[in-house]
Design brief:
By secondary structure, the protein is of the alpha/beta class. 37% of the residues lie in helices and 18% in strands. The protein folds into 2 domains: 209 residues, Rossmann fold (3-Layer(aba) Sandwich), CATH 3.40.50; 200 residues, Glycogen Phosphorylase B (Rossmann fold). It is globular.
């Protein structure tokens, strides 16, 4: 029987990386003669980051009867748990382990685990990358990324752009960039796949869409911004573009559903001190231009006079309520400022058969087919974004195009390809 381990946040954590880790583990468990373990954090970040990353709202048991065994072990702030996590992986002795890599702050515990595993065991290590060498990050971030994932046996990326960035991160390395199941012996395996469809969030056929639209004060056409409000995701672009659209039409609404990142309301003095300290530290990781500490895009709504056609749910959306926002929407708005790895929000949209509006940055030109599965707009061009919104209304993509994408980007094929690339690694 093959043993597989996935390292990443398990049920009980917020965010797309948790959803990805859970879905990947379930996909492995669904394969024949496979024993699957999910190795999870208990605390993902250092104590001085005051934001709450725990999901205390969702009630659904995401692992259910999948057969995945979850182990909650790694506490960023307690080095003894790093050793405990390493010993548990060695005890399980999987054929390979897939590390979810997304955040440079996590470099030291993840780097410790990968280096220990490669120095002392024959366990194959695969790094599944949700983060590349993005230009807005400082040099220290690139060094942290290099420290954490340098000794992985193989890498999985979700776009060719990320593959290029990884090659730039390790210029001295030799990589064998493949797509799907094509493997050769030349260089370290670098497998380009895709971001699978998040089928854990599915439409409710009995859901009363009309009633929900009325409750949220939504008009005929609804554009949805969903997920964490982070500067690079370009909510300010979406608001500005929608403001222009609302001047042309009176039947449109912008729905914003998500929690603000790196922000909080009134807090005890100790928490306020920790937040100030975390902002100081964050300045080492990103350029001043990309600092989110003073990012308040929701203030634009009143400044632009569009309060009557914008609905804001500025909080974390539990798993059970995700479908409510997607089912009332006509398109997802992803007017990113800069390139990023594949978007979980985009993945959910395809499962709901909702078209994508995105900027021509990062991976989007690879995954969003203009006028086929959505529309692409020029970055830093609000009128281009407005035109994309208008085009979506006038010529919405065909449902069959979205269904074709959703069927192709499934978890079973993704898991099988990762298994194949792991098997190709020579120990």
């Amino acid at each position: 029987m093959k043993k597989i381990a996935v390292f990443g946040p398990g049920p009980g954590f917020k965010g797309g990386i948790a959803s990805f880790s859970i879905s990947l583990a379930k996909a492995f468990a669904g394969m024949e003669n496979t024993e699957t373990h999910l190795i999870s954090w208990t605390h993902q970040y250092p104590f001085f980051i005051p934001r709450d990353f725990k999901d205390d709202k969702s009630q659904t048991e995401l692992l259910g009867k999948s057969g995945v065994t979850a182990h909650y072990l790694l506490n960023f702030n307690r080095f003894l748990t790093w050793k405990k996590t390493y010993r548990k992986i060695v005890e399980i002795n999987p054929d390979f382990i897939v590390f979810q890599w997304s955040n440079p702050i996590q470099a030291f515990p993840i780097g410790y685990l990968i280096r220990q595993l490669k120095a002392n065991t024959n366990i194959r290590v695969i790094a599944d990358l949700h983060f590349g060498n993005r230009k807005e990050y400082s040099s220290i971030v690139k060094k942290l990324a290099s420290y954490a994932i340098k000794y992985a046996d193989a890498y999985v990326v979700h776009s060719f752009k990320t593959a290029i960035e990884i090659k730039e991160l390790f210029p001295e390395g030799t990589f064998n960039l493949t797509e799907g199941d094509q493997n050769t012996d030349k260089g370290k395996p670098l497998l380009k796949l895709y971001h699978p469809i998040y089928d854990m969030y599915a439409p409710d056929p009995s859901f009363d869409v009309a009633a929900q639209k009325e409750q949220l004060h939504l008009k005929k056409y609804v554009f949805l911004f969903f997920g964490f409000i982070i500067k690079y995701k370009g909510l300010h672009n979406a608001i500005a573009a929608f403001a222009e659209l609302s001047k042309m039409r009176n039947d449109v609404s912008l729905l914003i559903a998500g929690e603000s990142s790196w922000q909080a309301g009134k807090q005890p003095k100790k928490k306020r001190f920790l937040r100030l300290f975390s902002r100081r530290l964050r300045a080492w990781f990103v350029s001043r231009k990309e600092d989110e500490s003073n990012y308040h895009p929701l203030e634009m709504i009143d400044m632009l006079g569009i309060r009557d056609c914008v609905t804001v749910v500025n909080e974390f959306v539990p798993n059970e309520e995700v479908h409510k926002y997607y089912q009332v929407s006509d398109a997802i708005v992803l007017f990113y400022e800069t390139g990023a790895t594949a978007s979980g929000v985009e993945s959910i949209a395809y499962n709901f058969r909702i078209p994508i509006l995105a900027t021509r940055v990062g991976h989007f030109p690879e995954t969003v087919k203009d006028a086929v599965t959505g529309y692409l707009a020029d970055p830093d061009d609000v009128m281009s974004m407005t035109e994309a919104m208008q085009a979506l209304i006038e010529q919405p993509p065909l449902l069959e195009n979205l269904e074709k994408v959703a069927k192709a980007m499934n978890w079973a094929n993704y898991a099988r390809s990762v298994c194949n690339i792991a098997s190709s690694v020579r120990i």
